[in-house]
């Protein structure tokens, strides 16, 4: 019986067709750009595509799937953005496990691109080609992107997959060397199916979370998990705009002390949806968007929230 590697991927029929036909017609591109919002299946599609590419050279599909899940296949190099901590690179998951307080988002570093170049410098050992996958390719600094560009010019017996939210988020010269594979927001039926199969039916009862997700099951799950981390009293206080300047300053202080940058950025999304449902005022959304940009520019978080809450208080009073 033939196993379809793409069977776990729902709601992305165009991407599945493009990738499947590339293999069937033996026209696999040297580089692909998987683009679409986070959480709609780009990373899963990359894993499925790798399995499809490698399955032609193996009879034991179960063993192949197990090795790919464990990340120990010799012809696959998977790259994630990292933090630099005490001389070591840590992925976001590793940083969270160590409970490190993160002030800036992780990035793909120049040394990681150099490791890719070294990896592609040898022929594949078992599969018909080497495969490199770069998650969150938009986090590459210009020096890293330029180094990768040189690799894409002569990839050898390999395929490189870049995963990013949009073509505009990646260096144009990189985009020009990749075949673009689009990924779309899921419709309500597909979103419901994915969340149910993943054991997250409870998320379907949280309209604010579903609004934040906007057709992205991955974002819905991540948002729901983040919701569980935020202290309940803080969430109750913050969803009711402060009634005085003193309360605004105290709330800003609490947020800055108790939430890391990632959680604060999520809170901006949550408040945009919550405040819109309460007041339907675009100006409030704009003020929160300004807060997001300030946080991303590493402005002092407490000051950002103080200015935001005072502005909201003045606007609604």
Automatic annotation (TrEMBL):
- Could you tell me the EC number(s) of this protein? 2.7.7.7
Name a Pfam family for this protein: DNA_pol3_delta2
Q: Name one GO molecular function term.
A: DNA-directed DNA polymerase activity
| Alphabetical keyword list | Nucleotidyltransferase, Transferase
Highest rank taxon of the organism: Bacteria
Offer one example of a GO biological process linked to this entry: DNA-templated DNA replication
Q: Transferase: present as a keyword of the record? A: yes
Q: Does the keyword Transferase apply?
A: yes
- Which NCBIfam families does the protein's record reference? holB (TIGR00678), PRK07399.1 (NF005638)
* Protein name listed in UniProt: DNA polymerase III subunit delta
Q: Which organism is it from?
A: Nodularia spumigena UHCC 0039
Gene label? holB
